[in-house]
């Protein structure tokens, strides 16, 4: 939080002085940092616990949120309980086969797919409802619906706010960087301490510009949700374009970077999404691989899918950090990571691109044995 808020507050004062935007800049910049920090906590799953109530007999001893409506089917397929909410069925169904009562198709699908994990969206006007199903030890299946409407609306509001404020702050930030560059045109005629101060302002401004660009990119990805279109396309040209920046940085850092992909490999891809994701992963791999190390970007067929991997022999990531490493601004070790540059948003962007594109994202890493980030590109759901 302090890592973002402090330069934001300082630059807010400079923007106010140089552009005449006044108190507005000073107030909004730290506020943006607070909102971004709250978004990072949301990625970590930090939410207040929902109220819980014990389910009455004859239900198994599940504990469900107060927004949940429940339906229970025994091992023979007969309805044995219906929640009072009525969202999933009618009490008159009790004792009758679930296939004979006219249950919603989403309920039948949830029962059929029990144990597969992913919730099933339920059609509802102006509401975000999701069905879950779980099997009890006696073979009965518990189906319950959760209303995520308020959560989804709050998330949309936060995302839009961060995106709008980031966009508005780019204009005063551009003015600040422009004034700094103009002042440095006469570098030889300025006192050394003034040159040093202007250089520091320029570096901080560039970091904030990269931060705002990353936040806007995340905003656009989140607004698309699972709606990024894909098409059949050659994979090799996308990978070659994605590693250009990483290749330049690798040459400077003394790291070998290779691309391994059959020229004729074709997969279902969104070109921009794959290029952005691989570029972020390749840059990370180069930055965390010591001089003399090796980074490989490879792609290979996997049935109807395509596996894209970015592999390095760098310092690696302890498994204790694997669940959080894709969060906004999360750093494994602040002291170790700070000097390597970047906005702290690269892996978060990769995660949200994977969600929006329907890819499977994986990480295999450990201290001292490097890292392997994987993306499984799948055909569109039929």
Structure commentary:
The chain has 382 residues and is of the alpha+beta class. The protein has 3 domains: 114 residues, no CATH class; 96 residues, 2-Layer Sandwich (Beta-Lactamase); 147 residues, Heat Shock Protein 90 (2-Layer Sandwich). Helices cover 43% and strands 20% of the residues. It is built from 10 helices and 14 strands. The strands form 4 sheets. Strands 4-3-7-6-5 form a 5-stranded antiparallel sheet. Helix 1 runs antiparallel to helix 2, helix 4 runs antiparallel to helix 5 and helix 5 packs parallel to helix 10. The radius of gyration is 26 Å and the shape is elongated. It starts with a helix and ends in a 5-residue tail after the last strand. About 14% of the residues have low confidence.
Topology:
Blueprint (H helix, E strand, L loop, with lengths): L1 H18 L3 H21 L8 E3 L8 E3 L3 E5 L5 E4 L22 H8 L7 E3 L6 E7 L5 E7 L1 H35 L8 H33 L6 E4 L1 H7 L1 H10 L2 E5 L5 E4 L1 H17 L6 E9 L2 E8 L21 H5 L7 H12 L2 E6 L5 E7 L5
Parallel strand pairs: 9-11
Antiparallel strand pairs: 1-2, 3-4, 3-7, 5-6, 6-7, 8-10, 11-12, 12-14, 13-14
Helix pairs in contact: 1-2, 1-4, 2-4, 4-5, 5-10, 6-8, 7-8, 8-10
In short:
The protein is α+β, with helices and mostly antiparallel strands and 382 residues long.
So what's the CATH class of the largest domain?
Alpha Beta
- What distance lies between the first and last C-alpha atoms, to the nearest angstrom? 43 Å
Q: If you consult CATH, what is the topology of the largest domain?
A: Heat Shock Protein 90
Instruction: Count the domains.
Output: 3
Mean pLDDT: 75
The H-and-E topology, N to C, reads as HHEEEEHEEEHHEHHEEHEEHHEE
Structural class: alpha+beta
Radius of gyration: 26 Å
In terms of DSSP E residues, the strand content is 15-25%
Share in helix: 40-55%
CATH superfamily of the largest domain: Histidine kinase-like ATPase, C-terminal domain
